[in-house]
Amino acid sequence: MIRHIAMGVLALAAGITSASAQSGALLARGKYLVDTVMTCHNCHTPRGPNGLIMDRALSGGLRFDEPPFDVTAANITSDRETGIGAWSVDDIKKMMTTGVRPNGVPVANVMPTGFYKILTARDLDAIATYVHSLPPVKNKIPAPVYKIALPQTLVPNAQSPANEADLKDKVKRGFYLATIAHCMECHSPLGPKGRDFTRMGAGGFELKGPWGVSVSRNITSSKTKGLGAWTDAEIKRAITQGISHDGSKLKPPMGFEFYAKMTPDDLDAIVAYLRTVPAIE
């Protein structure tokens, strides 16, 4: 009898340990994606004269005053008054993939929710769980102003969750990572109905901010206008250090400091995918 009880206690302890390990792995994956590939800090963490103010991480900050809207990146910490502390993990997941807040109000499409539809169930859960766990930071953000209704961006071949098995292929994994990193949000030009994905990666989009005005580069496989003549090492250097093929310094808002923390395998996959983007001159 005592032996059976002891075995039961051991089994229970093993189950608790296993569940704790799974929870830890989920939070670690969420933190990795938020801090690197997704570049969430690029918009949602306030900046000072010396860069990101990390003791107020993800409490909001960057303002987007564009013709269709005037919005400031939200406080996504767990503060209940000024952040999203009253949201559930499912609320966060719904907003990320549909662009709709729990109260039914859509977020401005500067938030690249259309790119997040491809997130695997595991990664979506990891991100939402990690964000839900963030310590509260009180930082009231101005209410958004929407001047016209804007549709969610629809990204080709990325309208449903990716299959985990498919991501074992390096190019498919690179496409997945480049999509959730919303690279083509900036590196594709605007057309009369929004982002022109018939010229995906051709660049030419102007980005205004504290850095002045940046014009996104052509990241297609074109050898004259894009990345076709660059080495793999040069592409990685541009992504992680902001240094171009010719040695010149690239400008924000490209999130070099976040991409620098990506794993070598993830960087290799993104480069492999970029090599396949059709050349546009």
What features would you describe in this structure?
- This protein has helices at residues 2-35, 41-44, 89-98, 121-132, 170-180, 183-187, 232-241, 256-259, 264-274; strands spanning 47-48, 51-52, 63-66, 69-72, 145-146, 190-191, 194-195, 206-209, 212-215.
- The protein starts with a helix and ends in a 7-residue tail after the last helix.
- The longest helix is centred in the first third of the chain and has 34 residues, at 2-35.
- The protein has a three-stranded antiparallel β-sheet, with no helix packed on it. Strands 1-2 form a two-stranded antiparallel sheet.
- With 281 residues, the protein is α+β, with helices and mostly antiparallel strands.
Could you provide a short overview of the structure?
Helix content is 36%, strand content 9%. The chain is of the alpha+beta class and 281 residues long.
